[in-house]
Write a structure and sequence with these properties.
The protein has helices at 22-36, 50-55, 65-73, 83-96, 100-129, 134-138, 140-155, 161-165, 170-194, 199-219, 226-235, 246-252, 254-273, 285-304, 321-339, 345-358, 382-401, 405-433, 437-448, 451-464, 467-483, 490-502, 506-519, 523-535, 539-549. By secondary structure, it is mostly helical.
Length: 566
């Protein structure tokens, strides 16, 4: 698979003795990617879903048959079926316990593997895209450089930081490994058809591709649109969607569609049971469309100009007018791409293959807390953009650099060296934003402050023992929530009361917890009220509060306003 092989079906390949040995290129790109992300080994867990998937997930602490049954059959965390992700967490816990270094190491290794897979996919696609550019295919050194460039454009692009450094996003890098492998074996399957190889070899590659696609869905269902991506590749550069062949090519994708539909149906069922979808009355379709168009614009923007990337983007309660302009711009841009697809097939295929897997993540299918964009969602969609960018560089080099060799080679080398260096520096800077929960939310607050950002930073301060800073952040949360008339603001009183109790300010804590109880009389609140009264020496009143709390004890918990206080 990584050795030398010949493709006699392409015009340019006939002038070429052999392809470069891919193993050294794959290893080089993977090692560079691994080294760039080594800084992430010093990062901690963060208090954004890491506690649900790892820290407080008791199930991953037993790597046995009962756990495997749980991983595949239980009600999943956050209503997503991710059995392979849970299994990978359980393996990490078996070796590392709750040491974050081990979990980060696995994420980095998976991403390095994925970067190597991109090199293999780039090689398969370059043989199609560059088939009419004999000089490029004959120049083994240049061709190897293009493969390295494609791998690095994918692997160290700053948008990958969230997927790699956030432990919870094991989902993305694990899905990426299976999805990229599935695409690679599909390309091998197509190559076998063109070479008229034995049916056993043909079907082996197809079954491998389909099986790996199914595994990708078990890691994270973001690869659901895989069939659409493969059809785009069939159009260009594989050029299989011909008049006399389109039915067969489309029929090949039916099993992919079938697996996708099953997972989609199961995910919708889980979300519906958990009331995970925002109803249209709360999030109207017109607002969803504007938010979705704005998101596509911003996703494309951070791919081209990866500057100012944040760990979290909260969707404003009032949609700014600029969102409408960006949504309209995206509509015109995508319409132009489709209209001129035959004139610019490489650009068209890279943009379309980027948008297709982004669609399920857009606001049309909104559920839970809403964000503007989530950079990790560009992980798989950025594949063909990286490959196409490297191919465009190659074609541009042939048209320009070969005419003015003396200075253009140096200029192009300098430009792309600076680009890769910028990616490395920006990636290192963004990794620092995920150092811990305090660093993460402080970065968000600095650029786009909102109430929940202060809330999560306050949780970090409480865990760190800095109760005064926690009280200050909870107070800011309350100011913002009261300004926006948020129905869940009682939670901020309750959490501030907990921080005040831990800092010994029992009178202030009692006032806060009484305000929380007046709005939402949950038993857990009475437990903390008892702690405040106990701290004030009011034993009889404390006993009464503990009685009303019943079995409710422990740390404060966030309660949605629509839930029952009982």
């Amino acid at each position: 698979m990584l050795g030398r092989y010949r493709n006699c079906t392409q015009k340019g390949d006939q002038a070429r003795e052999s392809f470069p040995d891919l193993l050294p290129i794959v290893l080089t790109v993977a090692i560079v990617c691994f080294v760039v992300y080594l800084r992430a080994l010093s990062c901690d867990f963060v208090n954004w879903e890491d506690q649900d998937y790892v820290l407080n997930n008791q199930s991953i602490r037993y790597l046995d048959m009962d756990f495997l049954i749980w991983a595949f059959t239980s009600t999943p965390v956050n209503s997503f079926w991710l059995p392979l992700t849970y299994i990978s967490f359980a393996i990490d816990y078996y070796f590392w316990g709750l040491k974050p270094l081990g979990f980060h190491l696995t994420n980095i290794l998976l991403h390095a593997i994925n970067t190597g897979l991109v090199v293999l996919i780039a090689d398969a696609l370059f043989r199609k895209i560059l088939s009419d550019h004999e000089r490029l295919l004959q120049n083994k050194k240049l061709y190897s450089t293009l493969l390295i460039l494609a791998g690095l454009l994918f692997g160290i692009h700053p948008t990958k930081v969230e997927a790699v450094v956030w432990v919870t996003e094991r989902r993305a890098v694990l899905n990426g490994m299976f999805s990229l492998s599935s695409i690679y074996f599909y390309l091998r399957y197509v190559d076998c058809i063109e070479k008229s190889q034995a049916k056993a070899v043909l079907y082996c590659n197809y079954v491998l591709s389909l099986s790996l696609f199914l595994l990708s869905l078990m890691a994270k269902p973001t690869s659901i649109p895989m069939a659409g991506m493969l059809l785009v590749l069939d159009w260009y550069p594989l050029k299989r969607l011909l008049k006399d062949n389109w039915k067969r090519v489309t029929f090949e994708k039916l099993p992919y569609f079938l697996f996708a539909v099953i997972v989609i149906s199961y995910t919708i069922l889980l979300h519906s049971k958990a009331d995970g979808f925002n109803p249209l009355r709360e999030f109207p379709l017109s607002i969803r469309a504007i938010a979705a168009g704005n998101a596509v614009f911003d996703y494309l923007r951070i791919m081209l100009f990866p500057i100012g990337i944040l760990p979290y983007y909260d969707l404003p309660k009032q949609i700014p007018p600029i969102f409408i302009l960006k949504a309209i711009s995206v509509c015109f841009f995508l319409s132009g791409i489709i209209y001129w697809r035959y004139r610019m097939p490489l650009l068209a295929v890279s943009v379309i293959s980027f948008v297709i897997p982004i669609i399920p993540t857009l606001h049309f299918f909104a559920g839970g807390a809403q964000v503007i964009i989530t950079p990790r969602y560009t992980y798989l969609p950025s594949l063909l953009i990286s490959v196409a960018a490297a191919a465009m560089v190659a074609i541009g080099y042939e048209k320009v650099a070969l005419r003015w060799k003396r200075w253009m080679k140096l200029a192009l080398t300098l430009v792309f060296s600076l680009l890769i260096s910028f990616y490395v520096v920006e990636t290192q800077r963004l990794i620092a934003d995920w150092k811990n929960s305090g660093a993460m939310w402080s970065k968000v607050i600095k650029k786009r402050s909102f109430d929940k950002a202060y809330f999560y930073r306050a949780l970090y301060y409480v865990d760190s023992g800095d109760y005064a800073a926690a009280v200050a952040d909870y107070s800011t949360c309350l100011q913002i929530a009261q300004r926006d008339s948020s129905p869940d603001s009682f939670n901020f009183y309750a959490f501030r009361a907990e921080a005040l109790i831990k800092s010994g300010l029992y009178s202030d804590a009692l006032a806060d917890i009484d305000l929380a109880i007046a709005r939402f009389p949950h038993r857990l609140y009475f437990y903390h009220r008892g702690l405040a009264l106990q701290g004030l020496g009011m034993q009889s009143e404390a006993v009464e509060s503990f009685r009303r709390a019943g079995n409710a004890t422990g740390q404060m918990y966030w309660f949605p306003p629509e839930t029952s206080p009982d």
